[in-house]
Structure formats: C-alpha cells, structure tokens
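RESIDUES AND SHAPES:
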Amino acid sequence: MQSVGRDISDRVLAEQARIEAEKLLAEREAQFRAIAEGVPLPITISAIEGPEILFVNEPARKTLGIEVGQIGAEATATWEDLSRRDDLLRLLLRDGIVDAFEAGMTNMQGSRMDTLVSARLITQAGRSAMLAAVTDITRQREAEAEIARQRETLYQSEKLSALGSLLAGVAHELNNPLSVVIGYSSMLKEFSTDKATVGRADKIHAAAERCSRIVRTFLAMARKKPPTRGAVDINEVVVASLELAAYSLRSAGVEIRTELAEPLPNIWGDRDQLHQVITNLVVNAQQALLQVPHPRRLTIVTTGDGDAVEVVVADNGPGMPETVRARAFEPFYTTKMAGEGTGVGLSVCQGIVTAHDGSIELDSTQGGGARFTVRLPSGKAETAPAPEAAGRAPPAPSAARILVVDDDADIASMIAEMLRRDGHDVTIADDANAALKAVRDEGIDLLISDIRMPGLDGPGLYRALAQLRPGLANRLLFVTGDTLAPEIDRFIGETGAPVIEKPLDPQTFRRLVMERLRAMETSAMEEVKA
C-alpha cells in the first residue's frame, strides 16, 4: 500500500511539474511574441530543413509578405538570390551567429530592397531553426550612391579646374610664338613681290592659323563663363571639332566623311557650348570605332531649312543594345572601363541642346553603328562684314605716338613693325615700370600692353596710369594670350578696357588700333568744341 501511495504521489508531482513547465513555456512564448511583435524590424523564424516558416512578426508580414506555415519555394520567395540564403545558412551552421549579412530581397509590393540580415541558430519545437532580423538599408545605399556620384562630380570639376589652369599657361606660352609666326607671315604675304615667297608665307600662315584655332578651342572648353548667344555657323563648329580630334582619329585609322550643306542658316546660340556638343559626339564615335576592325568610318552631315539646322554624326562602330541605348543620356551612366569615361558627356550634350530649344536623338542597334541627330532652330542672320574688315586695314586718320609694352621682345618687335608700316611713331618698353617712365618723359597717344607680365602686370599698369595720367588710362589697348584667370575677367569686366587675344590677327589688330585712334580724335575734337 505504501508503494502504491508513493507511485500516485510521484505521478501527481510529475503532472504538476509538467503543468508548471507548460505554463512557464507558454509564458515565455507569450513574452517572446510580445517582444518580437514590438520590434519594428521584420523578424522571422524558419526551420533549417524544409524550409518552413515557424514565426513572423507583424512588420515581416507587412513588409516581406511572409506568413506562418509557408514551405519551400513559397517561404524563400522574398530572396532575390537563393545562393545568398545558402551562404547565410553555411555561416550560421558553422558559427551559430551571423550579423550584418547583405542580401537583396523583394517586398510584398514587388519592389527590390537592399537589406542587412542578422541571424541566430536556435531550436524551435525540437527543430533547428534560424531566427532572422531584416533591416531595410535601401535608402542608405541610395544615399551612399548619391554621395559617390557627387564625389565623382567634384573630382571631375577639380580635374577640369586644374586642366583649365594648365591650359592657361600652355596657351600663353604658345600664343606668343604663334603671334610672331602669323604676324610676320602676313607681312611677307602683303609686302613680298616674289610669288614663290608669297606662296610659302601663305602656307606658314595657314598652318599657324590652324594651331591658333586649336589653342582657342582648348581655351573655350576650359573657360568657366556664362553662355553668350550669337549667330553661329554650325559648319565652322564641325570643322573646328574635327581639327581638334584630327590626330586621334587619324591614329585610330578612322575615315572621315563630311557633307556640309552650303549655304546653311546660322544658329542663334553659344558657339563654345555647341562646339562641346559636336566634339563629345566625335570623341564618343572615335572610342566606339576602336572596338571594331577596319574600315572604321565617321560621317558628319549638316542640312538646313528655313526653320532649323540638323547635324548627323554617324559611325559604323559596334552600336548599342536596347538596354544601353535606353540609358545613353542618363547622367553618370557609362559602359566604359574605369578611367575611360565618366558617363556625363551625352547628358551634358542633351542639356546644352535642350537649352538651345533643340533636340538630340540616338538611333543605334547592336552591331549596326550609332547615329546621333542634333536638330537646332536657326537664328538671326549674321550681317556680312564691311568690305573694310575683309581687306587691309585703312590708314589711321593721322600718325600717332604709340607705346608697346610686352616682356616678349619678339612680340613687341613684331607689333612695332606692323604699326610703323602704317606710319605710326612706335616706342617699345619691356615691362610696366619702363612704360611708366616713358609716359612721364614722352607724350603718348596710345598704349598697347600685354596683360600678363612679371612684376607689375597689365591691371597694375592701368591703375598706375589712372593716378599718373588719368586720361591715358582710357587710351590703353590690352593684348593677352590668356583670359582664363578670374581676376583678369573681373578686371576687363569692371574697366571695360578693350582686349585683343593672341595669337594676333594682323588685320584685326591694325583695324582695332585705327578705331581706337579715331575714337580718341573724335573725343578730342568734341572737347575743343565744348
């Protein structure tokens, strides 16, 4: 009897212990659910084998669209790449814990998300299971991508700024000897009586002019100035762009064919910006053609009617698949290798063309080349130059006393010789301080000065003259091989001082000198009458 009593007592105690254990388990489960449901992150528990969804909190149901009881493919449908889930499981089974595991997922609405998954290996209902908390970092990744884009933009801007400074120095050094070559070859053409000498001088002059156009093109691309609209001959822009890219096109074995309609209506726009558009399209075509065997062909055709001008830039390169063509004008999108491109060229082209009330279209198929069509509205007709501007500058109203200030002796001598041939009395000063001494000692009608000089520069000379002889500050004509520097631009804008850029075109230069002298004579006569 005692034995039977003890058995009953043991069974009662065991049942009570079981009940207490189940009660404790239920309490703990309720506590877990309360905690899990209160966490704002999607939390899931899934069986390792199966897999089977054992638990989801409300954020997981709303965000991922997962429900308890889902099995197999249905349970893993939110994973963008199932191999990433396999990678996570391998790490979890090895270490029992995984934090900040990156994976792409698809939410209930079908939108892709970038996520971080933190997982723990647990036992649920006697089965090995994975408890996972999912953090949506899509916006964070988008912000990081935007910061990277902005950093790249800043980097490119800094590179362009450095390039501009480099070009300014190179242009200044090149423009001086180019001015000498152009000036003396013009004088040889004008004054030589030997036809052979005239022919040789003409070739020298043409080659130097081509070099000067390339230098001016580089400067125009590097300058940071507000757009200035005017009548633009798009054929001249095309020719200048091809000259700029001539060496790279020739070295790549690219055959160039142009069909430039004549006459062509002018475009009312910014020449430098339109030049940038055509140059970008030419450079893009040249880079694409490097990917195909010979023959490599680049064709540029211009046509026009009364309302618009059209430029077609076509190549027989590899072309583009639909996925690339659809994003061709998207900023920072590029298929080039790192260091070969930034993906901003075509978007910049589109922006410039749109700002000119035009359109740019791309027609391309994979293996069928690319064809860009730029359509721009035609603008105001440009007034033809007066006959006087096309030929030799007529003599000034009277001989003038002119002081030439330049630290480059060859430039100063060449300018002096041109002006002496027009009957002027010319004195040379090799720096601004020597010029100030000459102004004190001699009567000067016109002062022609370089802007960039060692020691006292052109703006410094202008300010010194304003104090020494205020009237003479208005008789300055500046010559420069570089207007890139912001301080030079500000000085010219504030003073309104006339400037002619190197390399000097002799006819333009002599005509400007004549106009300045005429204006001064007219002003003097009006003062006498008053």
About this structure: The two ends are 148 Å apart (CA to CA).
